[in-house]
Design a protein that fits this description.
By secondary structure, the chain is of the alpha/beta class. The protein has 8 helices and 6 strands; from the N terminus they run H-H-H-E-E-H-E-H-E-H-E-H-E-H. Helix 1 crosses helix 2. The longest helix is centred in the first third of the chain and has 17 residues. The protein is globular and about 60 Å long. It starts with a helix and ends in a 5-residue tail after the last helix. Bound molecules: zinc ion (ZN). The site of zinc ion (ZN) has 8 residues, from helix 4.
């Protein structure tokens, strides 16, 4: 069954999808009505044609600026740097950041061989330099793993001459968590990043 194998093969290429799951997705398509399949195909074409990157922050955008960059009430002196658009969405959900973002689309990784020029790092440097001092703070919110740390260090070196405040998000104890069960690295960071109350 060539057609079936083909669609399973396509689903297998989706991130995080294993062989069993790919098979279930394929079965769903087989059982779906022709109208439903047509709307799937249409949605795929539409997303490919319309969804591009925001020219300012590289978040997803449907032509022109993304909704955040287009929002005049956002504080442009504050840029939060994230690895992926999903990270931006997560921070937006927290509703405690009023600045703008920069999406790197990856992290520098000496192990995986990802160099700074393979992610949107130069674009951030250009943006900060072009602001001519209007950007007051860059918050680095890359992941708290080896690659995220390497990226944060690299960014700090790169941006230091052009922006007065470079900060890193704090790591800490999750709300509702048990100190007892925390790993010592996180606990160490939580202590180091303690705040006065
Ligand atoms: Zn944007």
């Amino acid at each position: 069954m060539k057609a079936l194998e083909k669609i399973i093969g396509i689903f297998r290429r989706f991130p995080g999808v294993g062989p069993k799951q790919a098979e279930r997705f394929a079965m769903y398509v087989v059982k779906a009505s022709p109208g439903e399949v047509e709307s799937m195909v249409e949605a795929l074409r539409e997303v490919k044609a319309l969804v591009k990157y925001c020219p300012d922050c590289y978040n997803y955008a449907e032509g022109g600026l993304c909704p955040i960059c287009a929002d005049q009430s956002r504080d442009r002196s504050l840029i939060c740097v994230v690895e992926r658009p999903q990270d931006l969405a997560a921070i937006e959900k927290a509703k405690s950041f009023s600045g703008v973002y920069h999406v790197l689309h990856g992290a520098v990784s000496p192990v995986a061989g990802v160099s700074p020029d393979q992610i949107r790092m130069k674009e951030l440097l250009d943006r900060v330099r072009a602001s001519d001092g209007a950007v007051k703070e860059v918050i680095i919110a890359t992941n708290p793993d080896a690659d995220g740390e390497a990226t944060a260090m690299y960014l700090t070196r790169l941006l230091k001459p052009y922006v007065e405040g470079i900060t890193r998000i704090a790591y800490g104890v999750p709300l509702g968590g048990d100190i007892d069960y925390m790993d010592e690295v996180t606990l160490g960071y939580a202590l180091k990043g303690r705040i006065k109350i």
